[in-house]
Amino acid sequence: RGTSLVKKTHQKLFSLKGTTGIVTGGSSGLGLATAKRLAAAGAQVHAFSRTGRARTRGRTKGITHHAVDVTNTKAVAALIKAIGKKSGIDFVVNNAGITVRTPMKRAKRADWERIHEVNLTAAAEISRLAYPYLKRSRHPGRVVFITSMAAHLGFDEVTPYCSSKAALLGLMRGLAVEWARDGILVNSVAPGWFPSEMTKAVLDPARKRKILARMPMHRFGEPDELA
User: Fold this and answer.
1) What span, in angstroms and rounded, lies between the C-alpha atoms of 169 and 152?
2) What SS3 class is residue 200?
3) pTM (predicted TM-score)
4) Over the stretch 80-115, which tens digit does the pLDDT of each residue have?
5) For this structure, is 133 an active site residue?
6) Which one of 48, 145, 161, 179 is the catalytic residue?
């Protein structure tokens, strides 16, 4: 009887049955793991990515993949409107992000602008476009920004990325205060180093050894641990 009670309490606390939400960058890595975990809890998840498909085999019940560039405001607006009108929107996880490894003294303005456009501006626009539906949610609407420890510590040769993630924290804090009166909770999660296509692009053996040496557990995180 005790085991049954614990199970029911756990299901009640963590069930997302009847909710619908969006996860950006949902084709692989942290985004896909998060989408899968939310779907497993009963949510209907709309995963946004450039490819519009998971980079793993098989389909996951509860996840619908959409091919869309998160910086294309017109396309994103149409997609959010279609989702919102059909089922409402209860949560948004802004996970999409990019980076380029280069010393700041050689950084290209085009890279700076693209990184901020994807990591910051797109997240702001998606949140703004989802706002009317989040406000009408039967639950507290939820917005979660996936930032980075780079916003707090700074990392070598990825200064534009650090800047974009630090700005994302400012966006989160502003919206958390502004949208609280509408029953929308806004938070952020700042991952350290996790294996992903993006982190592979900035890691070499020497840097990997240096990063792992700084970690008390001396290992990278696993996507499902963050999810």
Assistant:
1) 10
2) helix
3) 0.89
4) 999 999 999 999 999 999 999 999 999 999 999 999
5) no
6) 161
